[in-house]
Design brief:
By secondary structure, this protein is α+β, with helices and mostly antiparallel strands. The protein has helices at residues 10-17, 25-43, 147-163, 185-191; strands spanning 53-57, 64-80, 90-91, 98-101, 112-117, 134-140, 170-173, 176-179. Strand 7 and strand 8 (176-179) form a beta hairpin. Helix 1 (10-17) packs across helix 3 (147-163) and helix 3 (147-163) packs antiparallel against helix 4 (185-191).
Length: 200
């Protein structure tokens, strides 16, 4: 099977496991996919790039639209529905009508998370009926997989592959047994900087 949106390659995982044969390739690929989706769930975001997709959004306020996911590139088309009929007839111009934030995203090698209106312009807020008044079309996610995420995927994939020999969560070594911990602290430390902090 082919790995879909995995955060490490089969070759990287096999190198870490010191494997040269292809006997367990399918199990290893399954481990990579499982580890990658667990990383998505832990971080609250994904690190691959989607195809360009249009998403309707309710503005956070009259000046800010918070994107539903990370913006993988600076190429985004933002349209506004000023009449409340569910059509997005007004195309906004980046750098004239709005800017992308955070403004230091490129310095920190992070994606953009929102758009802010500038020059006295505002997003439509209240319309009847209540349709989302903004539409963003973009490639969502990350342009490239961060190194720490790739390393976390290798470690987590190794763990998941080894777990096949410890169905009850206990690994035996000669006269002793070791219980598998719930969260690998190294994986946790690698991924914590990438977690989306949800505020209720």
């Amino acid at each position: 099977m082919a790995i879909t949106n995995g955060y490490c390659t089969l070759a990287e995982l096999k190198a870490a496991l010191r494997l040269s044969d292809s006997v367990d390739d399918t199990l290893l690929e399954n481990s990579i996919e499982g580890a990658s989706r667990r990383i998505d769930g832990y971080c609250g975001r994904w690190f691959y790039k989607t195809a360009s997709t249009a998403i309707p959004i309710y503005p956070l306020n009259e000046f800010v639209v918070k994107f539903p996911a990370d913006l993988a590139t600076t190429t985004v088309t933002i349209k506004s529905d000023t009449t409340g009929n569910g059509t997005y007839a007004t195309t906004l111009v980046q750098g004239t009508d709005y800017i992308l934030e955070p403004t230091d995203a490129t310095l920190r090698n992070r994606p953009y998370r929102q758009a802010r209106m500038v020059g006295g312009k505002t997003f439509s807020q209240e319309v009847t009926p209540s349709f989302p008044t903004v539409q963003c079309t973009a490639e969502w996610g990350w342009a490239s997989i961060p190194d720490d995420v790739r390393e976390a995927c290798v470690l987590l994939s190794m763990r998941q592959f080894a777990r096949l020999n410890a169905a009850l969560g206990v690994v035996g070594f000669a006269d002793m047994a070791v219980q598998v911990r719930a969260v690998d602290p190294d994986v946790r430390d690698l991924l914590n900087p990438f977690q989306v902090i949800a505020i209720a």
